[in-house]
Amino acid sequence: MQRRLEADTIVVGAGLAGLTAACELADRGKRVLVLDQEGPQNLGGQAFWSLGGLFMVDTPEQRRLRIRDSADLALSDWMGAAQFDRPEDHWPRRTAEAYLAFAAGPMRAWLAAMGMRWFPVVGWAERGGALATGHGNSVPRFHITWGTGPGVLAPFLARASDHVAADRLVFAHRHRVREITRDAGRISGVAGEILAETGVARGATSGREVTGSFEARAASVVVTSGGIGGDLARVRRAWPVDRLGPPPARMICGVPAHVDGAMIDTAAAAGAALINTDRMWHYTEGLRNWDPIWPDHGIRVLPGPSSVWFDALGTRMEPPFLPGFDTLGTLKRILGTGHAHSWFVLTQSIIKKEFALSGSEQNPDLTSGRWREVLASRLGSGGRATGPVEAFKEHGADFAVADTLETLVERMNAIADAMGDPRLDPARLRTQIEARDAQVANPFSKDAQITAIRGARAYLGDRLIRTAKLHQILDPAQGPLIGVRLSVLTRKTLGGIHTDTDGAVLDAQGARIDGLFAAGECAGFGGGGYHGYNALEGTFLGGCLFSGRNAGRAAG
């Protein structure tokens, strides 16, 4: 069976960037065809699983918390993090500047007009911890959307539904694009395979049985197909060995298996230039999911600043490699041991207040958008952490719990033995923890982590819900003690298809390919990598919205 389709514009990929582009195109009266290799149960892509955080600048939420932010400060932070240093960084830099103007300007009003709202406490992610000119957010900028990822998707799904009803938008699921076609040198559409329908759960691995083929013609094509994080072999091939050392032999996946980057190769075959493909964003605080949905399913811990962090050999990690401060630097530091895992040691007081798990499904209270559930989960749970965190503590293979440090290390070593990891020396851990604890006894300290905790609690948002009161780790009143084995968790692609700020795809000579556009993660969230080397968080969903909006307003 061969199916023939026509539209004004084709969007390849039904994630957040694709939905945004499709809605903007349909708003302009274009007939839009959205193709996606997965079933309708995966509509919205990776945004569905997200915490819904958005990087925005100088917002009412910030001002209410007495956070003084500005476009100039955000630009300084971004450039200090990005460290653009390549000739091909021209468009990534321009796109970053444009996004910052958007994030400090019309972004919030545009989203609020669609009904989006945000949790009143602004999160402080990627705090840096080194120099003012280096990586990190100077102030909190992570705005969690009420409803988390599904809350971000909701207005675009509603807009798309209206356009479907008006016959301006058509979704064709289980259509896998294999080729971007040309006619007289200009992009003319796409061609590919029709896959058998699937009833698997969202995120689960779907079948690849081919039941037919299709051709779709359009004046323009927008590629919004996502990154490579679900293909561990491909991640290893792209790994920046010169900067980070050899890739880990063992990693876990923060995205489903279908996030494989195949469409990036298809765009390259059509003439698209690929840039910065060695830039990527993987997390160091990954947990093996005790209730997995996709292969090697991992969940990220979003830590507060208080857990004591040890490398695989049992050495406490030095600043700026503290929880929540410098993801890429910490990744390099961990891998420098020759191993790809590390350990948190913390108390029940810390896990209750500081442990959050990334993802909509791990934060049902925030996903519900109901204050009653948030207050009950975060503030009314007695000495317990949130339900999902307590479930990981009880069922997760990476957790050890005990009343004494020696028993805790014994149980951590049982995990290490099962994983083939080096064993930890309880006496060595005790020496380091006792030295840290001795710094808590008075208001003075030479321990940078102690200073960082005190600094965090100076921010009202952290003091209320994100940072535990400073205490000694070995204080029995704060227990029990908890040890957590952390893995490298694949997540985001920071490079990809080279575009300009409109999302127009560029060829190897830097010229536009007439009729071809790209947005979202496959384009490095805009420009071919608008993050540079480091992300400031909230910039992944933000990049999908921004680049999808631009492409949807320029294509066709």
Word description of this protein:
The protein is an alpha/beta fold. It contains 19 helices and 22 strands. The longest helix is centred in the first third of the chain and has 18 residues. The mean pLDDT is 96.
Helix content: 25-40%
Total strands: 22
In the predicted model, the low-confidence regions spanning at least 5 consecutive residues are: none
Average pLDDT figure: 96
Globular, elongated, flat, extended or rod-shaped: what is the shape? globular
Structural class: alpha/beta
The portion of residues forming beta strands comes to: 15-25%
Separation of termini? Answer: 29 Å
Q: What is the count of DSSP helices, taking H or I runs of 4+ residues?
A: 19
Largest sheet: 8 strands, mixed
Rg on CA atoms, Å: 23 Å
Pfam families: FAD_binding_2 (PF00890)
GO molecular function: oxidoreductase activity, acting on the CH-CH group of donors
Domain FAD-dependent oxidoreductase 2 FAD-binding: 8-541
InterPro entries: FAD-dep_OxRdtase_2_FAD-bd, FAD/NAD-bd_sf, KsdD_DH, Succ_DH/fumarate_Rdtase_cat_sf
